[in-house]
Amino acid sequence: MIYYKTDEEIELLRQSNVLVGRTLAEVGRRIKPGVETLALDKCAEQFIRDNNAVPGFLDYEGFPNTLCISINEEVVHGIPSKRVLKEGDIVSIDCGVLKNDFYGDSAFSFPVGEVKKDVSQLLFETRKALEIGVQNAVENKRIGDIGNSIQSHVENCGYSVVREMVGHGIGRSLHEEPQVPNYGRRGHGIKLREGLVIAIEPMINLGKRNVYQAEDGWTIVTRDKKPSAHFEHTVVVRKRKVDVLSTFEYIDEVLNSK
Ligand code: MG
Ligand code: MG
User: Fold this and answer.
1) CA 189 – CA 133 distance, rounded (Å)
2) Residue 175 CA: which ligand is closest?
3) Sequence ranges of the domains in the chain
4) Rounded to an integer, what distance in angstroms lies between the CA atom of residue 48 and that of residue 21?
5) In whole angstroms, what is the distance from residue 239 CA to residue 246 CA?
6) Model's pTM, two decimal places?
7) H/E element holding 63?
8) Ligand with smallest separation from the Cα of 106
9) Ligand 2 centroid vs 50 CA: distance in angstroms?
């Protein structure tokens, strides 16, 4: 069952998603060598609660924290811990909030200090793949057009698309139909209609696409142990041009001032 949102619901979704963007910026401000990932998680939880919302991932299917924090070869769903960030790491931060009964969901991969050229290129191109996918979220295109545009871009760069996890509809539930794969065939899948709200979230590996789940029961890791990047926006399908509800604006301000 797909829930198409009213304009009123979309404005509530926008508030939730802007809060996610501001939370990611607060976290991004603190990312540097020597920082414990659990400290980033606590900062995010406090910021979300201070803004009259609750963490969207905490206790979701038993997830123990506010943020998913995934370092280097960890793709997604990493659990915050006493692990300390090191110079040259990349860290993918995925954040969800629930406010006024609607979810926000967005993710950003940050460099820690100076990272190797091939790794910073992976971050740049994965973010670009997300932007390309987002531009395809317009009425009368199909789900496969989004996935195909992402896949084409990253495979042209020599990277690979993780298949096991996909984007999703979002609203009163964190994960709604339809699924939004980051791969696919042009012209295939359901037709996009105005008011459809989806999270588009390419998970892109520098090496091969294969992944496995770690023994903690959550963290997804690349088989070849090469790094992986993850960027995510929540967007509304509109007739002519997509409306992006989440934002990297606050994150970019922080990164530009570092
Ligand atoms: Mg997410
Ligand atoms: Mg998501």
Assistant:
1) 15
2) 2
3) 7-257
4) 11
5) 19
6) 0.98
7) none
8) 1
9) 23
